[in-house]
What we know:
By secondary structure, the protein is mostly helical. Helices cover 55% and strands 0% of the residues. Helix 6 runs antiparallel to helix 7, helix 7 (185-199) packs antiparallel against helix 8 (213-226) and helix 8 (213-226) packs antiparallel against helix 9 (230-243). It is globular and about 55 Å long.
Amino acid sequence: xxxxxxxxxxxxxxxxxxxxxxxxxxxxxxxxxxxxxxxxxxxxxxxxxxxxxxxxxxxxxxxxxxxxxxxxxxxxxxxxxxxxxxxxxxxxxxxxxxxxxxxxxxxxxxxxxxxxxxxxxxxxxxxxxxxxxxxxxxxxxxxxxxxxxxxxxxxxxxxxxxxxxxxxxxxxxxxxxxxxxxxxxxxxxxxxxxxxxxxxxxxxxxxxxxxxxxxxxxxxxxxxxxxxxxxxxxxxxxxxxxxxxxxxxxxxxxxxxxxxxxxxxxxxxxxxxxxxxxxxxxxxxxxxxxx
Length: 291
């Protein structure tokens, strides 16, 4: 009995020593950053904001759009090309459908990172009010955009002049990772409108490759149109068309560079992630051979 107790004690001591070494290893490894040390300067904040757009580029890289096409009318069965697509086409998806999982996961990763910025940016040393306001506005725009895209795909439609108590999606407005019940469709749209109305004036009109007040107003127009509020949809759409710096392009969609029609876009570096838009190029190209 004494030997057994001694072995058990020795195992416990070795186990504790091993855990301590593991923790020390990660703390000293430059590849890892602890949460409490992640945001220590405006540059750290900007890099986290960039990572929001990085995930957003995955989310909007074609697969999201493909799922909508597969659920629409007039599309032939994609049998033989992609098992995930066939499941979606037949409305018989299972837990192991990686395409759906990837789209849903990317949407909420971007939302989680946006919420992290909203909760933390004001406490970062060196961050002034103007910088904080821009970062928070951009984060709320992405949060609204992703909630809107996900509720349209994973819930029943919004019905104008109705209570819209049908189940929607989970609205995430903080970084708490505990599971939550689904919000109603009405609650989801209320959250989307709240974010967009708040940022439509605080976002800059010019913001490089990042989102702008024009993007927020354009998305507001789209959301209001879907809700059946045509007056508000017209108001914001007309403001973007009449006052925004956007012009009809020459319809050559495949030239490098930015289109003058683009109101919001995600930008990829071809030398780093040339397949970021693979969901488009792999499914919509006219020279793709038939199976």
